Amino acid sequence: MPRLPPGTVFDIIDHLADDLDVGTLSTCSLVSLSWMTHSRAHAFSKVMIANTTRLRTFLDLLHGGGHSFRFCVQELNVGSRASGVRTDLKRSDLVILLGNLPTLVSLLLANIVWDDDLGGKCMKHIPYYTPLRLTLLKLVNFTVRDKALSMVQLSSVIHLFSGINYLALLWDSDVEFSTDNAVSHACAKTVALPQLGELSLLNSSLNPRIIKWLCNGGIGSSFKALTVYVADESTLAALGQLLRSSGQLLETLSLYLHHDKGLQNIKREC
After folding, report:
1. Distance in angstroms (rounded) separating the CA atoms of residues 160 and 155
2. pLDDT score recorded for residue 21
3. Quick check: is 123 in a domain?
4. Could you give the number of structural domains in the chain?
5. Integer Cα distance of 227 and 219 in angstroms
6. Is residue 75 part of a domain?
7. Residue 148: helix, strand or coil by DSSP?
8. Whether 168 contacts 193, CB under 8 Å
């Protein structure tokens, strides 16, 4: 694929706006210095940031202030699942993104290397930040650098929101999971987590621990729909605990069962 010459991003945005006689583009995945200095007010309903360099540039743009597009963005993707490149994301950076995009309803964090530089503070302890309620939060290949993933890191993301209608946790491969006291510490803090409407767990190796964490945190009863990949008895045992804690609220249960012929989907209305 040929490389675009410098300044092309500026020209593309100008051209589209002039030809369509509108100041709105539905999607923006091009972030550059020329775009930052563009004076025309554009609105983007979806912003895609593919790597750490573009993330830093976009954060610099937000620091400048006075950008009307901030009030139109509904969907934000940070990181790229397709490229396989890891994107470094600090919790303080995510707070800046969320604080500057008040209309956001969907967030995807893909191939993210997470750094909780705020020390696990709940959203109510972060000054000047009003938590959003998301329709969708999707974490794909969510990891931390040079150590095992624990529930502390997962909860540090979820703590930033007032509510999440649909939470999806996906991993393409096994992730080392922490079994130290930090996990118990995270479980104790889940009383402050937002309620979750629907949960999708499609990774067999982590599902038992994630399910037990949600149950021990007292939020297992908040799910209306549940989708789980089941590959062994430990997942079934954990799932049983979650179902017992769900009471009468659970409406739909979808199980993906692994067998010799592949995956089989079993869906039941509760």
Report:
1. 9
2. 40
3. yes
4. 1
5. 16
6. yes
7. coil
8. no
Domain that holds residue 105: 8-193
- Quick one: pLDDT band at residue 112, thresholds 50, 70, 90? very high
State how far the Cα of 38 lies from the Cα of 77, in Å rounded to an integer: 22
Summarised one tens digit per residue, pLDDT across range 166-196 is 999 988 777 777 765 555 555 555 556 677 8
Q: Residue 112 is encoded by which pair of tokens?
A: 């993210």
37 falls within a domain: yes
DSSP sequence for 5-65 = PTTHHHHHHHHHHHHHT-SEEEEE----HHHHT--S--EEEEEEE-SHHHHHHHHHHHHH-
pLDDT at 146: 82
The enclosing domain of 59 has a CATH number of 3.80.10
How are strands ordered across the β-sheet holding 161-170? 24-28, 43-49, 75-78, 106-110, 132-140, 161-170, 195-201, 225-230, 252-259, 262-269
Ranges assigned E (strand) in the chain? 24-28, 43-49, 75-78, 87-90, 106-110, 112-115, 132-140, 143-144, 161-170, 195-201, 225-230, 252-259, 262-269
Residue 86 in domain: yes
Q: Report how far apart, in Å, the C-alpha atoms of 63 and of each of 36, 60, 101, 187, 263 are.
A: 11, 5, 12, 35, 47
